[in-house]
Amino acid sequence: MIIHNLGNNNSILNQFIAELRDVSIQKDSMRFRRNIERIGEIFAYEISQHFDFFSEEIQTPLANTEVNLPNYNIVIASILRAGIPLHQGLLNYLDQAESAFISAYRKYESETKFQIAIEYAASPDLNNKTVILADPMLASGKSMYNAYKSLISKANTKKVHLLCIFAAPEGIEYLKQYLGDDIELWVGVMDQKLNEHSYIIPGLGDAGDLAYGEKI
Question: How far is 188 from 8, CA to CA, in rounded Å?
Answer without folding.
Answer: 9
